Amino acid sequence: MKKITSSLASLFLLLACGQNPPTGKDGWTANETRAVEAIKTTYGGKAVYSKTAPTEGGKNFFHIELSESKTIEDQIDLTGMFASHVAWLFYENIGDEKSQYGGVEVTVKLSTGESPAFQYRFDELEKVKNAMPVLEKTVALLKTFDYDGLYALLAPERAATLPKESLVTDCSSYDKNNGKVTDFQFQGFGFFMPSGSQKEFLHLAGKLKRTGYDTPLSIFVDPASPKMEGSVQYINFDY
Asked: Is residue 12 part of a domain?
């Protein structure tokens, strides 16, 4: 039996030991670098980033501090939404290295002197990922004026209080006044539990690109719903 060459032996050793992805000269992997670049391209300004010390579960959190972002400064009241989008951009671009992270921490230094901080666990981001097809379906139906299909997405308890005609009138008035929906830009999410409810809702929000004037879009989804139809609690044309 021939001896294995040293290069092949090294390769087998790396595979057997579960070697971490290679890092560049700056200490970041290609996926991490891509994730950071996606954030910087979207929000501009300055970005300082690092890994936190491992938590009790043995995983790091990615931490990023943003400052001088015109996108955020122009809409400071939406800082929390933008911070969640920063976390999503990291999660979406980190690829198969997700298992090495517990989540994302985002700090935003504002011109007001405030520095709000947010934390997003990867198990929360996984729920967002699972709900994204509902958001994509909503946008697709709005593009084709399929209000019947849109109404079918509503949870039974919501449909019982909202006549289809009201939804059609609301949607069609925006189409008439602001133009046809051509695209959508996801901008963030949030989890909340309405007062008096035992059910957690997931808020997904962004901007509808239209031929006339762009409008916001929010949908409120039950993240525990096993299917797309009947999972939407609310559809609003605002944040």
From this structure: no
pTM: 0.87
What whole-number distance in Å separates Cα of residue 231 and Cα of residue 73? 34
Residues 152 and 187 occupy one common structural domain: yes
Count of structural domains within the chain: 2
User: Is there a contact between 71 and 82 (Cβ–Cβ < 8 Å)?
Assistant: yes
Query: Which residues span the domain enclosing 217?
Result: 126-236
User: Which of 58, 84, 115 is at the close of a domain?
Assistant: 115
The rounded distance, in Å, linking the Cα atoms of 84 and 108 is: 11
Of 88, 133, 138, whose CA–CA distance to 226 is shortest?
133
Q: Are residues 63 and 104 in the same domain?
A: yes
Whether 13 is in a domain gets the answer no
Is 90 in contact with 192 (CB distance < 8 Å)? no
Nearest by Cα to 84 from 52, 112, 121: 121
Q: How far apart are CA 85 and CA 128, in angstroms?
A: 11
Sheet bearing 201-210, strands edge to edge? 181-192, 201-210, 215-221, 232-236
109-131 tens-digit pLDDT: 999 999 999 999 999 999 999 99
